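Support request, priority: normal
Reporter: lab tech (M.K.)
Component: structure prediction queue

Hi team, I submitted a job for Cytosolic Fe-S cluster assembly factor NUBP1 from Buceros rhinoceros silvestris yesterday, and the status page still shows it as pending. I've pasted the exact input below so you can check whether something in the sequence is tripping the parser. The sequence length should be 233 residues. Please let me know if I need to resubmit or if it's stuck on your end.
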Amino acid sequence: QVALLDIDICGPSIPKMMGLEGEQVHQSGSGWSPVYVEENLGVMSVGFLLSSPDDAVIWRGPKKNGLIKQFLRDVDWGEIDYLIVDTPPGTSDEHLSVVQYLSAAHIDGAVIITTPQEVSLQDVRKEISFCRKVKLPIIGVVENMSGFICPKCKKESQIFPPTTGGAEKMCQNLNVSLLGKVPLDPQIGKSCDRGQSFLSEAPESPATSSYRNIIQRIQEYCDQHHFQEEKII
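Reply from support: The job had stalled in the queue. We restarted it manually and it finished. Here are the results:
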């Protein structure tokens, strides 16, 4: 059972990507009911609270923090195995709030996404520094848009050249795990726009194989993290 919480308050894209655009949140005696993609995947996003997906959310920090707290307190997820929190880029109010509010829950860790070029890696180094300052474990880094594999000749081209060594070099320097590299695939963008599962739509894509390997590594990390906590208890 997986819960997906979108706390990108000003740019909620999860409803579109999950095929849930236009859905509404319902309230019951036990709290807000998440919107379900499948029986084992529930979603909550500020996007469900907007009258139109084009509406701008112009909120200052305290109001954002209040909504995040309400999501964490009032959404009735039921029994879940994983809570995945999708955050906006950077190190802003949303990140500080969710780390603070979930501190007692012993967060497994953060998965940090980058692209190969240095302009992206600069921001990711700041995010790694943020995690270490707030004592948030880092599960690892995923390099997105990591080369393009031609579907016909199978030759790989570097659309975004890793001029400073990409995520692999950065992870070595900062002693962080590289969970995997996801190559460019036009079908990923199409699947997101249509709200369809890329893994189901393109099972033979090299990107699908990368995603599955990354998911497996994250699951193994979480299982090990829980095992160590149980030993301490």
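The chain has two domains: 1-105, 107-233. The two ends are 24 Å apart (CA to CA). Let us know if anything else looks off. Ticket resolved.
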